[in-house]
Automatic annotation (TrEMBL):
Species, as recorded: Buttiauxella brennerae ATCC 51605
NCBIfam families: PRK11372.1
Domain C-type lysozyme inhibitor per the UniProt entry, residue ranges: 33-94
Pfam assignment, any one: MliC
Protein name: Membrane-bound c-type lysozyme inhibitor
Signal peptide: 1-19
This protein's UniProt keywords: Lipoprotein, Membrane, Palmitate, Signal
Length: 107
């Protein structure tokens, strides 16, 4: 009986890991923007207050910061700032993606 229990523990733990991954995906929205320069796909996790996206072949994870207007996410170098259906991406205070318009926004 103990051998069966020992064998079942890794299976149960992997099930928990799969469940956590599933829940994480359910809490993440995929936002499609069309910017002046190119399209931008942003993964938004409201629960963790983060966004993830690829820019210049670099995977970026930005956490929500203070903003007087709209929503601002940053990692100290990059900033993703959105307000309504528009967004802008900055790198060290320089605009790198501008006039990003949300495609098929939720109403």
């Amino acid at each position: 009986m103990k051998k069966l229990l020992i064998a079942a523990i890794p299976l149960m733990l992997s099930g928990c890991s799969y469940y956590n991954t599933f829940v994480e995906k359910m809490q993440t929205d995929t936002l499609q923007y069309q910017c002046d320069e190119k399209p931008l796909t942003v993964k938004l996790n409201n629960q963790k207050q983060m966004v993830n996206f690829v820019y210049d072949n670099e995977y970026l994870s930005l956490t929500q910061g203070l903003s007087a207007s709209g929503t601002r996410y940053t990692d100290g170098v990059y900033v993703f700032w959105s307000k309504g259906d528009t967004a802008t991406v900055y790198r060290k205070d320089t605009v790198v993606l501008d006039n990003c318009q949300l495609q098929n926004p939720k109403r």
